[in-house]
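Why do we bother with a discrete structure alphabet at all? Because it lets us treat a fold like text: something you can write down, compare, and reason about line by line. To make this less abstract, here is a complete entry for DNA alkylation response protein. Read it the way you would read a sentence in a foreign language you are learning: slowly, and without expecting to understand everything at once.
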Amino acid sequence: MGRYLIEAFDRGERSDRYATERYQGAAGRNWWRCDPTLRLLMRRHLGDGLAWAEPHLDALGELTGGLVAECAEETDRNPPRLEKYDKWGRDISQVVMPPSFHTARQALMGANFTSPSFAAQARAHGADPAALGAAWTYLLDQADIGMGCALGTGGDMVVSLAEKHAPEDVRDRVREIFASGYYSGEAAQMFTERSGGSDLAALETEAVPAGDAWLLSGFKWFASNANGSAFVVLARMPGGAVAPFLVLWERRDGSRNGVRIRRLKDKLGTRSVASAEVEFERAEAFLLAGTGSGEGSGLGTMMKLTNASRLGVAMMGLGVARRALVEAICYARSREAFGRPLIEQPLMRRRLGELIVEVEAAQALVFDGHVGPRLRLAPALIKLRTARLGVTAASDAIEVHGGNGYIEQWPVARLLRDAQVNPIWEGGDNILCLDVRRAMLKERAHLPFLDHLRALATSDLVRGRVDDLTKAIEAWSALEHSVAEERLYPLAQFMADVYAAALLEDQATWGLDDGRKSLVARLYAEAHLADQGPLRGIDRPAEDLEHFDALVSGAFAN
């Protein structure tokens, strides 16, 4: 029995209505077992390696849906705090993480699919480490995207740049810090200043040479994972070029480096990652770029790694959307109104059916970004679509819950608070659109992208829209500069629509789900690419309602 008292209104004829044990949401379930779409992706991408990987995936599904989800709620209620000074009044700038954070992190590191040792085991058993790493972050982000940020922020960037450019003794220190892999919570990116995060021309942090090291002075306005051990910091060199630098908490001689945390940010959400204002006062740093005429070359490398970070944020948007979908389905099955469960009511079935299709389209995009061909345009387009979907899906889940959804004791309120950061992290919509323009004009990146779509699409509708998209890009290229910039957003949305539709059609050819994915692909293409006609599709056949049970059973298994 539960720990609550049985009140008078809980008894009698109404007792079934108040049997709250019926209202189990996502938490407490095994998220691997209840996700047929993830199992389909792993069957496709792991092949014979799935037999070895499945016990690990099953254990991870139990962990993320259980302990990690539980700890996420506790950390949200008791976020990190800053111990600014010690008892002698000396600045220690120590971020104190709550016990729930450490519990979840320790458990996740014990089941870390991204560690070098696990990746080696996966390869030895014929399983793709990239696919397993994507599954790991996908399940983690359903529980807590703040933890996903804390563990994954910039680790690949720090290690890759340090291996190329840092002095040998510093490289050794970085290797020690990241012995458990990129996703170990040891890195932070410090780019944003009070003047803004995307406008590098306004950057004020300065670096001056000091032997084979540099001394950094400046102030970063928004730095996530401030309790990490290794930071990539953007600073301006004497000649004016902006370059990335590595900063550690200790100097080479073991003394405290010139790094101060002014305060932690009191954020709307993602409270399990400590975000702070960080000041550098002649902090020892190491240039993560080439020397001589190529001084700023590290910036280009860093921007390429930023595209990988964008895929990480896109996965966070997908994780929130998937969790919101599961919470909405669970609640709609249990909650009764007008004499029957919500999930049996046509308007609710419409909303849930549309959300299922949108989440699976986002899933197709994100996993293609992680395990598909490395397309220059993909990260920006995928983040553009999935980061925003996390917000709208969480909002939908709140509405499905009604007033309960607006209460912090229910999980969907936190989902919405957390999701709102994803359109900001690693570039807002406008910055992503500008990156799409840069990739098309400077790298002709739309050509391999369009080829990829042509290879995936199977229906006349989607193939026709690939041709239309080709014409749209040509027409956009001929526009006057300011007009072309203003129309980047609808062009990028068109690209994302066709991209997702083509991926879903390709999944339908895998033959792994008795034709259900064909239904999802068709519903998505009809919603996003078909001409709805003067009646806005109101007169079309009610196939979405007729196939609702197939949509739900293929999206969520009890």
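What the structure line is telling us, in plain words: Residues 292-296 have pLDDT under 50 and may be disordered. Residues 297-334 form the longest helix (38 residues).
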